[in-house]
Amino acid sequence: MDLWRSEPMQRIRLMVPAEAAHETIVSLGEIGLVQFVDLNTNRSAFQRTYATEVKRCDEMTRRLRFFKEQVEKEGLLKDGIGVDKDTSLDELEARLEELERELLEVNANSDRLQQNRSELVELQLVLEKAGKFFEEARDAVQPEILEAASPLDLSAPLLENAQLGQQKVTKVGFLSGLVAKEKLENFERLLFRATRGNMFLKHCEVGSLRDPATGEQVEKHVFVVFYAGERVRTKITKICEVYGANTYPFPEEAARQRQMVSEVTMRLRELSTTIEAGERLRFEVLNTLAANLTGWCGRLMREKATFHVMNKLSVDSSRKVLVGEAWVPVDALEEVKDALVTATEVSSAQTGTILEPMHPEGPPPTYFKTNKFTEGFQSIVEAYGVARYREVNPSVFTCVTFPFLFAVMFGDLGHGFLMLLFALFMVIREKALGKVQNDMFEMLFGGRYVILMMSIFSIYTGLVYNEAFSMPTSFFGGTKWVCQAEGNETLPDIRLCQGRSLSLLVDGTDPYPFGLDPVWHGTKNELTFTNSMKMKMSVVFGVLHMDLGIIMSVFNQQYFRDQLSIWCEFVPQILFLNSVFGYLAFMIVYKWCLNSHFALPNPSGPGTVNRGTADLYNVMINLFLSPGTVDPAGELYDGQARVQSILLLVAFVAIPWMLLPKPLILRSRNRNGRQEQPSGEDSGTGAAHGGAKEGAFSFGDVMVHQMIHTIEFVLGAVSNTASYLRLWALTLAHSQLSVVFYDRVLMLVVELASDPAAGLTVRSVLQIFIGFFVFAMATLGVLMVMESLSAFLHALRLHWVEFQNKFYNGDGYKFIPFSFANFTKDDL
């Protein structure tokens, strides 16, 4: 079984000729079965042999990122060709450098031309709008003022307070340009304050324009500000610079204005033609990049990864041979040797790579062969910790126990079916959905088979609970119970038993064939019965799950030949757990099987109690408080007092059994020079504390550790058993939430909308539709999302804490082979 234990690993040494080193690493990266060990940990990245090549790859990576940004900006990114293996690294570097220089030049020319065009467009708007300002002023001025004014003095008529008899006239100047709309108000206010009101501003909106400085679209206004004096002009110019207002010359003569408009229009036409030609050239360059970008990224990714691995190899003094060490699965050794032979032939090296096995200095990495189904469950286990090399893997049983415990808390036929549809959707369309780039969905998609198993088990437990959206089902026939009415009468129709008690079973019939009898739904004692059943069921499942964990520990101890831990840990642990809580689980099952007619009057005669009604709470309390005696009300079988006394004695003996023998035996072995050193024993074993591996033997340390281990197990047996009651709590919460949503949301609206006198109206249909919509949203949002996540987390805790801590060390490290398949373009 591939998952039961990790693959056996072999440490190898590779002696690679320098001329074949690159091709050798590439061949090993193709097969992806070798994990290299860094032999240069004492060197920084800049002191490594191939640091120069890595820098070259980093520079080429920067260029490729720049190319990718430019291509994505234009929306030209395409899949392109595969990995470019024919072009050498030097040729690729020269090609990328040339393309970068060409693209930068094209971009610079394009930006400069666009800037010139934007400036000309703004100048054109200034000429157009400012010209209208002056034309409106000329049309509005009085004819006698025009005759009195000088022909060249265009500013005098614009002054509202101009007087005909004024002897001294100050010449008024003006400045025109464009300013952003959002800055116009502050711009005008500052102009007014700076000039103390000695200015006049005229502006007009021109819409969105490309700003020459930033290249962004900005809402702008054309303005003309009139002033008097050169000092005021200097102030206005500085204010324009502060607010990013672009100023442009505006001639006073009308003829000169028309000439400038003509020149600007012609220059704009020429610039448009030049820009179109430049854009065609830039588009051709970007198309070339888009067609080859994928291949270049793949090639550079491979080269960069190859040089990083080559930097892990040590170089001999002659620099002719590279020595490397690596971990390889034993089953893959022949494939690795074939890859080395292929690399030697491709590189035309005179000598081949030498591969020789080594004795490992440290623990090997852990490697499990997984598939699409088991990968999700293996990820759940490894989220707690990677398995120690060759120890038992919990995911073998987690594939079944995890979805089953989830389903115990989430059991509902309808909810399980909805989850099954979602899981089947992801499984059937896994090829298309596997390409979705979203972290949350990738996590969900990776566990699609986990969700599939959880949905199947939820459907199964829903059949056991006989619930579908909180409604009872009758797939296996009608009920075997009758409903008790007043006195000794019974109701003929079991559906009339809402709110009454079920106390009589039809004589001569068998119990309900599968799962819970549907008649319990809606009765007075429904919660009493289902709570008792589910609570006891949780205890039974918990004890079985913990027993499985302890049994798995013996497989580790046998494999690592740790006989001392088998006799001094496994045996007392299994005895202690089952003498107390295993006995409780036995009594639960025995009581279920003892008397199916426990509700009938006691046929044993007066003065006696039916054994089917024994109170297990009192039995467990009296087991410790009154050993050797059994209350008649709690007697289940003959000789119960003697059995309980033996079990209690076994439980008390198991505690010092776990505590004392192992440290004493280890001390004895240390004194006699016969120390046992298991190769992979559990925590607290002789190798860890016997001094055979590290330092001298310390009996005090071993004793303290064993004491902690014993106390942890004894207290953990109690707390872990109680922890499994979360199965009961979660399934009760899920069931009651389903009932609330069904009765208080859906059925309440249906009852309010149903009026036999009025019949089915538009209003009642609308009410039912709204009620069903609220019910559906509550079911999906609360039960299918929040409740499923809660059950998932609780099942995760039960496996990590209550199950895996019985045997799982989780202190290994994962086998991560050097493989090109593990790299993507995002790794550049």
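Second entry:
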Amino acid sequence: MAVEEEGLRVFQSVRIKIGEAKNLPTYPGPNKMRDCYCTVNLDQEEVFRTKIVEKSLCPFYGEDFYCEIPRTFRHLSFYIFDRDVFRRDSIIGKVAIQKEDLQKYHNRDTWFQLQHVDADSEVQGKVHLELRLSEVITDTGVVCHKLATRVLECQGLPIVNGQCDPYATVTLAGPSRSEAKKTKVKKKTNNPHFDEVFYFEVTRPSSYNKKSHFDIEDVDEVDKMEIRVDLWNASNLKFGDEFLGELRLPLKFLRQSSSYEAWYFLQPRDNGNKSLKPDDLGSLRLNVVYTEDHVFSSDYYSPLRDVLLKSADVEPVSASAAHILGEVCREKQEAAIPLVRLFLHYGRIVPFISAIANAEVKRTQDPNTIFRGNSLTSKCIDETMKLAGMHYLQVTLKPIIDEICQVHKPCEIDPVKLKDGENLENNRENLRQYVDRIFTVITKSGVSCPTVMCDIFFSLRESAAKRFQGDLDVRYTAVSSFIFLRFFAPAILSPNLFQLTPHHPDPQTSRTLTLISKTIQTLGSLSKSKSANFKESYMAIFYDYFNEQKYADAVKNFLDLISSSGRRDHKSIEQPILLKEGTLKLTVKKVDGNSSCRFMIKRAQGRKRFGMKNFKKRWFRLTNHEFTYQKSKGDHPLCSIPIENILAVERLEEESFKMKNMFQVIQPERRVLYIQANNCVEAKDWIDILTKVSQCNKKRLTVYHPSAYLNGHWLCCKATADNTPGCTPCTGGLPANIQLDIDGDRETERIYSLFNLYMPKLEKMQEACGSKSVYDGPEEEEYSTFIIDDPKETYKTLKLIIEGVGNLEQEHAQYKRDKFKKTKYGSQEHPIGDKSFQTYIRQQSEISAHSI
């Protein structure tokens, strides 16, 4: 979800690898061990949770998490919890990274010391205040000074234990006085509107003095006074109300201006507690990649995009813009991700990969090493398979992977690692059955392989067979090195990375999957000496089960099917594809003026406003055919909505039910599902996937109501008729292809950013082209890292790239200058206390004479 900023879209995303924790403090009980899990939080909102690693002080998680960030945030935080069966889970420690510091750790494995978690430091949100200092002349002619403090509203307060009932206290404090006042409690909202004014007498009445707002004798004392605003969550728990954040403002700043209105970020409270030493709590290994893309309208990218999309037609392909990007990037993966997405979006991926693969095959001398390196070709094909083949993996492998994870059959075949009571022959038989089943479903899945993958495999097969005409097996190994070695085997080994399981498997299951993956990889390789592929003797013994010609024949038949041109018709797969599932809260309403709801308890009928008891937790399941929900996972569906009956999927404003992260699924006959997700990321995921799968429906709505119909009227537009057409346009159309929802402009912006980052290498490559053109002797060492087959063509492309990147750089710089002129510090978008904006101000002050 992009944030719109005057002709510019801002996308935020984060990719996180949660590695492991080490040296956690021991549990105070006799066992000493802990059952720990890690959460990922945007400020105080949890958006991801790892599995629980039991009985360990050095838990290994090995989990990856990616999300598009749909809102602003200040901190990316990681909390390590110790599970407690009888009480609330306890927090061991946390890692909090400020948004402006994320680039320091970009794509680097880093050990972070866990910090002590203090409830008074766990704050988020902002408050809108207006302060006014005025002189009041009493009936007796004397003058006093009064301070009016207006608490208007707050935004983004944290939800504590599932609820937020905030109120504010306003205190005027000085060396010899303290006076406090309190707002009303606002129920069930983390964006409260208070709009309450509190008056404080700042100075004692005295004779009027025109020279100063303050009496001379009180100036020093007033300079030491401050106004403090504290936010609290009204709690029914015996521990008292929870602190949400505070703001301290000295009164002396009002001596320049008697009135001041601004937004402020809430700050933690300094309570003087002694913090623990950092090494007392252990450490956590993380790899964080935070990306913020500022995307202009499409026409800005036309010059650079045109150069990139012509890459497949450039001769030689090493002189193309896409190939050059792979040459200058530090890692080929950096270049492959945006390139593949861009070419997929414009339907140019097959000719592009065919061109770079053919060039790589021509440079390969040994058919046994074909496509075995981490080249741009290999990385691009890997990325294409991940994007286009995700649902193919779901249909093919997920059922049996789920069974392996749930049943926990013993499959250890290493005699040294056998547990007490296990039988080696029984374990071999269990493993053989699993391998046989997975091998069978893979080799019979050729008809389901995505067309784009098949077209690429056909190209690989043809290039390899033409280059090595004397090797009859190379047409198979060129394809198997991708489909088995880089697709199926990694998915079996790490199913969580391919969305086949939500978390990294437990150690026993992980070991079983490792053994299966090794065997499948060897079966697919078609090497002539299979046993020699295994370093472990127990694997060579186990593989004897599969030394039959029927396995090699099955692999070849499968590879022939997925790499043959025109091998099948392009009918859609009839088997439903599972797109998403999970637990959400639900209420159903028919907009007919009556408050009738499904699955409501009797006393809920006729309520003026729906409460939490009207919402029931249900297991939701979305396929490309229907949207269903049931009481629990695996139960018979309570309701099934055909995809063609989904008329719109939109967010629901918080005011409707005083609940966050809500959305609505609108159906015919004015039936509406009101659904609450667990967090903002999950809500966005459900809205996106439901919108994508239903957007081609002929009867989709063009307008909708962003709030509910309650108490006889629509809360958004106040219309009283229940059949009033919507008051807000529906979300704009999205790409119909569920698998490949790609923003071409965003990918071009990312490629521009990479070219800009590696501009010194581009310039060095230009020098290398010049050197090759005029000097045909031994190659200079500093230029030897570049593949330059045609210096003149490469130089021409480099010139176009540098020119396009330079133009975009100028547009970005101009946008920053314009934004800098218009931005006000203390506005709702940039509250006082915004460190990232303060950094931005310092940067702009160095290049601009303008001030805020």
